[in-house]
Amino acid sequence: MMKSKVYGHKVIAALAMGVLMVALSACEKSEGPAEHAGKEIDNAIDKTGQQLEKAGDKVRDAAKGEEKN
Questions:
Q1: pTM over 0.85
Q2: What is the pLDDT of residues 4-46, one digit of tens each?
Q3: 20 to 30 Å CA-CA from 31: which of 49, 58, 60, 63?
Q4: Up-side HSE of residue 17: CA atoms within 13 Å toward CB?
Q5: What are the phi and psi torsion angles at 27 (to 5°)?
Q6: What is the DSSP letter of 27?
Q7: Distance CA 33, CA 39 (A)
């Protein structure tokens, strides 16, 4: 009788884990249009910032070149 109780608990635990896995996988949502647009805006801002840094470096380098002359 002791073996059947242990076996029963293992079956219940396995079923509970299966139910939890299914429930958690159902919680994953796909990206909506607003989230997608937000990511695109973030990428555009990052690229703009990089370009501004490059332009600032060029201005600084040009100013240093003028000071040397």
A1: no
A2: 666 778 888 888 988 888 877 766 677 788 989 999 999 999 9
A3: 49
A4: 6
A5: -75, -20
A6: T
A7: 10
DSSP state of 34: H
Q: Of 13, 35, 59, 28, nearest to 51 (Cα)?
A: 59
CA distance 10 to 59: 70
Distance CA 39, CA 36 (A): 5
Residue 1 pLDDT: 47
Which distant-in-sequence residues (6+ apart) come within 8 Å of 31 by Cβ? 39
CA angle 43, 26, 34 (to 5 degrees): 30
Residues in the chain: 69
Could you identify the residue written with the tokens 């973030």?
42
